[in-house]
């Protein structure tokens, strides 16, 4: 039953990528911006959760809720300060700004707390559980459960709430949405808030799973989540979920076969192949752009 254990591990890792990828794909779907600072919001979420548990002595669920609230505010602040005035500028300006915001967050964090890593407290100990004959850690199942619940909650928000309908309208045609009385600025702020909240939750889950966190930890998971978003079809919420899960499964499979040194390289090989043979992604659509 080792294959089942690897499957559970792959889904757990992939769900972390999926939560981060959702922020990329939501923002791109509405403002056509690749927010490369998103991985650093994920890093901030990991530290906020760490201090919530170790300093405020909150439990796992309250720490995640607090982290999601704080990172959602950080996401809104980033959009308001860094991106809003560049909305009608060339895309290269917004992209360059995103890289600058990313570096600013990373090195401000290093300046405030230092570059040394921290170790997450072991909330679940070494407890294991047997699932269909396979032995897996309790925290693996907790990560999977929390991730699935957050993804389902996002789907419900997007499809059945007023703000979700506004997000879909702005994504389809911002000018028409504005004429129908929808506040585009408020909708974009909500999009950044939701995406950043999910990234913050992913940061806490990452800390629980991998235990070690540091100010530069957002780089590789952030890039992998971007690969997952492209794999699924950038701008597609279901695509980001599926892309993240598939990437996690592929990485875990590569490690299980004894090629763990190549697990990071595999993500970027997949990105190159997707861009070469299926640039629209698994769930994306070919869209003609007028010049």
TrEMBL record:
Keywords: Amino-acid transport, Cell inner membrane, Cell membrane, Membrane, Transmembrane, Transmembrane helix, Transport
GO-annotated cellular components: plasma membrane
Pfam families assigned to the protein according to its UniProt record, in alphabetical order: BPD_transp_2
Entry GO MF terms: L-isoleucine transmembrane transporter activity; L-leucine transmembrane transporter activity; L-phenylalanine transmembrane transporter activity; L-valine transmembrane transporter activity
Membrane topology: Multi-pass membrane protein
PANTHER family: BRANCHED-CHAIN AMINO ACID TRANSPORT SYSTEM PERMEASE PROTEIN LIVH, HIGH-AFFINITY BRANCHED-CHAIN AMINO ACID TRANSPORT SYSTEM PERMEASE PROTEIN LIVH
Protein's UniProt name: ABC transporter permease
Organism of this sequence: Hydrogenibacillus schlegelii
Highest classification ranks of the organism: Bacteria, Bacillati, Bacillota, Bacilli, Bacillales
């Amino acid at each position: 039953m080792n294959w089942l254990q690897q499957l559970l591990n792959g889904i757990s890792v992939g769900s972390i990528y999926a939560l981060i990828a959702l922020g990329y794909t939501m923002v791109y779907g509405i403002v056509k911006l690749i927010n490369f600072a998103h991985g650093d919001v994920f890093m901030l979420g990991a530290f906020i959760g760490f201090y919530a548990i170790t300093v405020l002595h909150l439990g796992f669920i309250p720490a995640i809720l607090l982290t999601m609230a704080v990172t959602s505010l950080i996401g809104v602040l980033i959009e308001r300060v860094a991106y809003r005035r560049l909305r009608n500028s060339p895309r290269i300006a917004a992209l360059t700004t995103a890289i600058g915001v990313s570096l600013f967050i990373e090195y401000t964090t290093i300046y405030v707390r230092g570059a040394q890593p921290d170790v997450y407290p072991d909330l679940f100990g070494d407890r294991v559980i047997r699932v269909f004959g396979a032995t897996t850690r309790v925290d693996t199942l907790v990560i999977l459960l929390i991730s699935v619940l957050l993804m389902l909650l996002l789907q419900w928000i997007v499809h059945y709430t007023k703000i979700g309908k506004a997000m879909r309208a702005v994504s389809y045609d911002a000018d028409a949405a504005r004429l129908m009385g929808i506040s585009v600025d408020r909708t974009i702020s909500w999009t950044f808030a939701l995406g950043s909240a999910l990234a913050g939750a992913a940061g806490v889950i990452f800390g629980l799973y991998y235990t070690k966190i540091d100010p530069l930890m957002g780089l590789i998971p952030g890039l992998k989540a971007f690969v997952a978003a492209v794999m699924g079809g950038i701008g597609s919420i279901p695509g980001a979920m599926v892309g993240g899960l598939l990437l996690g499964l592929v990485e875990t499979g590569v490690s299980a076969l004894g090629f763990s040194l190549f697990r990071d390289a595999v993500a970027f090989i997949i990105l190159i192949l997707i861009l070469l043979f299926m640039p629209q992604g698994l769930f994306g659509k070919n869209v003609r752009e007028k010049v």
